[in-house]
Design goal:
The chain is mainly β. It has one domain. The protein contains one helix and eleven strands. The strands form three sheets. A five-stranded antiparallel beta sheet has the order 1-11-6-5-2, with no helix packed on it. A four-stranded antiparallel beta sheet has the order 7-10-9-8, with helices on one face. A two-stranded antiparallel ribbon has the order 3-4. Strand 3 and strand 4 form a beta hairpin.
């Protein structure tokens, strides 16, 4: 439907947040994760892949004019998805989207800059790894983000 747009800076974040109404009244419709890892026909495993081969596609729907957006996270370092929870709806009221420097160990990646998306605007990066939070927050940490509007 639309061409991919890259989020390279704060202006790109602002554009996505404006077009998709800050993810207000949204929900995650689907996810597809690709690691690039595989086993060939002879049984040899190729699990050590370059960072850019780890890709997460996320389709979100909302009740606003944009309707649906596909996010393509490249160089995925971590993602945490929370499914159904008792006593909590999975509607997204607002989202967190920001660039961060140095949240990964120094030897983890040649590029210390990451982009972080979460289904809650009050998400705190420094609390990643805390024991169960109520309600649980879904989040993605990656090195690149592209997006496009898609049909619902």
């Amino acid at each position: 439907m639309n061409e991919w747009r890259s989020v390279e800076d704060q202006r790109g974040i602002d554009e996505l947040m404006e077009v998709f109404a800050g993810f207000h009244d949204s929900c995650i419709n689907s996810l597809r994760y690709e690691s690039g890892c595989f086993v060939d026909g002879k049984g040899s495993m190729y699990a050590h892949r370059p960072p850019e081969s780890f890709v997460l596609h996320m389709v979100l729907h909302n009740q606003w004019e944009a309707g649906a957006v596909e996010l393509r996270f490249g160089g995925v370092r971590r993602f945490h998805m929370v499914g159904m929870e008792d006593n909590y709806m999975k509607e997204i009221y607002d989202a967190y989207l920001a660039f961060h420097e140095g949240i990964l160990p120094a030897d983890y990646d040649a590029s210390p800059r990451t982009i972080v998306w979460a289904d809650y605007a009050g998400f705190k990066v420094d609390r990643i790894g805390d024991p169960l939070e109520e309600p649980g927050t879904s989040y993605v940490i990656a090195t690149t983000l592209q997006w496009r509007l898609v049909e619902r």
